[in-house]
Backbone:
């Protein structure tokens, strides 16, 4: 089993709540084992007082091919808006990706998730 933490970087709590829920739904559509809110971070629907910078999801999966699909899904989600940003954490390492970036992001994200060789 592999766990990946994904944090939405957004200062506005309402936008962060909306984005984290949207991203969670997209990830649940993949062949992952689970997608849960980070420990102690289940935001109430439409929360206004949640610190947007701390909202995260924990994605659990048991297959390497799914790991690559998760990486591509995260990249595509970020690229839908130029001001979106995510921090991906795996095995004590982190990688921040932002919207409207180059095609090299695919290789960078896949390498990060696969084996950490950047």
Residues:
């Amino acid at each position: 089993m592999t766990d990946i933490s994904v944090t939405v970087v957004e200062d506005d709590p309402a936008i962060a709540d909306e984005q984290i829920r949207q991203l969670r739904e997209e990830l649940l559509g993949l062949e992952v084992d689970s997608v849960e809110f980070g420990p102690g971070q289940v935001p109430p629907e439409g929360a206004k007082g949640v610190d947007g910078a701390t909202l995260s999801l924990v994605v659990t999966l048991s297959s390497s091919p799914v790991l690559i699909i998760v990486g591509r899904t995260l990249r595509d989600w970020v690229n839908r808006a130029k001001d979106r940003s995510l921090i991906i954490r795996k095995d004590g390492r982190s990688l921040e990706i932002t919207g409207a970036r180059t095609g090299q992001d695919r290789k960078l994200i896949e390498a990060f998730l696969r084996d950490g060789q950047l």
